[in-house]
Design goal:
The protein has twelve helices and 13 strands. It has 369 residues and is α/β, with parallel strands linked by helices. The chain starts with a strand and ends with a helix.
């Protein structure tokens, strides 16, 4: 029986990393008999948003103080847990800088894998990246690249991410599907367009609303529903008001029954400026919903074959996004055909197929250590 230890930050949120970890860790425990431990940081008694297998074991460490004290405490407590668990493999799912130092901090010589869920250059694409900020990010990236070489394997989610890193220990393993219904998929008859994800600069909802202004003038009877953590500072409701589209746009908080929303949608839109993968795309496609997405870095071009199972639009082309949405609204046969192709094409992301790739990776690492 293999024992693996995931080291991450917190897993109580409703984000993509938390969802992926709940699926993957649970599948390895339930179907492969793995002993799976998850080590979190400063999570406390926060309840989990997603369902995790009852077979998983959890550890949480509290760390605070100035950088020197923080790092010292972090190292001491992590090594105590590692000694207790004695894992065959350690997986790091911490997208912060500290995660890159773990091969230097952990005494146990077992294989260590870094699982990267975001683009290395994510900070460079932020709205307020100044010259100094960009310079510091580039220095940080150089450090990360150097430290990344110390991991036995460095796993990225898409082929596009390969270009982010100059590493010989790279491996591409995409995220698994959250669900793949055999029946009760979308019949694509509702006049509803869906988008899912937290409100932030990355997700590009300001761009979607500007596109929707164009769509709404031609198809005023269609509705746009946006689900995700609501962030008042993004001022999306004010933007919708100023664009005079408030009556056709609704904002909802995260829901544990997002499957129902996919089932009721006829078109899915991803207006992101950048992504780590694009879980929402394969979730929508699992329900046979055709997707329109900006061809942002990284993920959409790995998932969508343009005009076959969805529509890819040049990143930032507001009118192009509107045109893509309109083409699906206007043609029910096109929606149906793309939706059918989408369901077939994303079978490669089924949990059993992704778990098989991880099991092979772990087996090889343990055998060759």
């Amino acid at each position: 029986m293999k024992t693996i230890l995931y080291i991450t930050n917190q897993i109580c949120g409703s984000g993509g990393l938390e969802r992926v970890l709940s699926i993957k860790a649970s599948y390895l425990a339930d179907h492969y008999g793995y002993k799976v431990h998850i080590l979190t940081l400063n999570q406390g008694d926060e309840a989990l948003f997603y369902d995790f297998s009852t077979k998983l074991q959890y550890h949480d460490i509290a760390v605070a103080g100035n950088p020197i004290k923080y790092l010292s405490t972090y190292k001491k407590k992590i090594n105590a847990i590692v000694e207790e668990v004695n894992p065959d493999v350690i997986l790091v799912c911490d997208d912060g800088l500290k995660g890159f130092f773990l091969p230097l901090l952990i005494k146990n010589p077992c294989p260590k894998v870094y699982e990267r869920h975001v683009s290395k250059n994510v900070a460079l694409q932020s709205e307020s990246a100044s010259f100094i900020k960009k310079l510091s990010v580039k220095l940080k990236n150089t450090l990360m690249n150097s430290l990344a070489k110390r991991f036995d394997k460095f796993v990225v989610l898409t082929n596009g991410n390969i270009n982010d890193w100059n590493l010989k220990n790279l491996e591409v393993i995409p995220n698994p599907l959250s669900f793949y219904p055999e029946k009760n998929i979308s019949n694509l008859s509702n006049k509803k367009v869906l988008a899912v994800g937290k409100q932030c600069y990355q997700k590009g909802y300001d761009r979607l609303l500007k596109s929707w202004e164009i769509v709404n003038k031609i198809y005023p009877d269609w509705q746009l529903d946006i689900y995700g953590k609501i962030e008042p500072s993004e001022k999306l409701e004010e933007l919708a008001d100023s664009l005079k589209i408030s009556e056709s746009v609704s904002f909802f908080p995260p829901t544990k029954t997002i499957e129902k929303q996919y089932q009721e949608a006829s078109v899915y839109v991803m207006p992101s400026r950048y992504e780590g993968f694009g879980m929402v795309l394969i979730e929508a496609m699992a329900y046979g919903v055709p997707c329109v997405s900006f061809d942002c870095p990284f993920g959409p071009s790995d998932i969508i074959s343009d005009n076959k199972n969805g529509i890819l639009v040049e990143n930032g082309d507001i009118k192009g996004l509107a045109k893509g949405i309109e083409s699906l609204i206007n043609d029910s046969d096109k929606r149906k055909k793309m939706g059918e192709n989408a369901r077939k094409d994303i079978e490669k992301y089924l949990p059993e197929k992704i778990a098989k790739q991880w099991d092979k990776l772990f087996t090889n690492l343990i055998k060759n250590k």
